[in-house]
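Re: the request from the purification team.
They wanted to know what the chain is likely to look like in 3D before they choose a buffer screen. I agreed to run a prediction and write the result into the notebook, where they can find it.
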Amino acid sequence: MRVKPGTTHTIWEEWGETGVTLGVKLEDSTGADAVARVTGFTEDPTGSGVYRVSFTFPDDAGDYQLIFNDDGATYAPDHISTRAVTVTSAAPDGDFDGTTYATSEELLAILNVRGTPSAAQSAKADRVMLAAAGEINRELDLSDDQELDGFGVALCAQVNLARGAELWKEEETQFGILGIGSDVGTTYIARDTWEKHAIKLSTLKGQWGFA
């Protein structure tokens, strides 16, 4: 995620559990708090396990880490999620305009949702595809005079579907922890699931911002 200094954005977090009290803070590259923990998340839609909050980023450029948690000041390993953020003047000016690189119907087919999807399934598919496409556009950061060729559009479609499937499944599995009570013990899932997609998209990037 790349944002301009001092800007305010609506942050969405697919937490996968409904009715929690979510908070988020921003740490700088030294581990110090750049923005103290804030709460006030709204679950949207209600019962979905998806939350949003308005968040203002610092004026100082640099690499940061958003840290989400649902256990107050404890930050236990199975109660946190992190997201890398670069604050840079080279970040995109506007928010994502709502165009996806693949369709919700394609995603539902990949997920083996058979028959006519329910209204809730269709809404969920639309939401995760929009979220994934928005992440792609922020990662690419194309200038106004740059366009994707056929290869680029196809690659973005692949990433859109793969990321959409990840976001879909995050709502169905408690994010960050697997194998409780199993023979191998508790296993934690890596939090930064975007990195592998960013690597795929690296050949298409329009700009590389420097903090």
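For the purification team: Confidence is low (pLDDT under 50) at residues 177-190.
Please add any questions underneath this entry.
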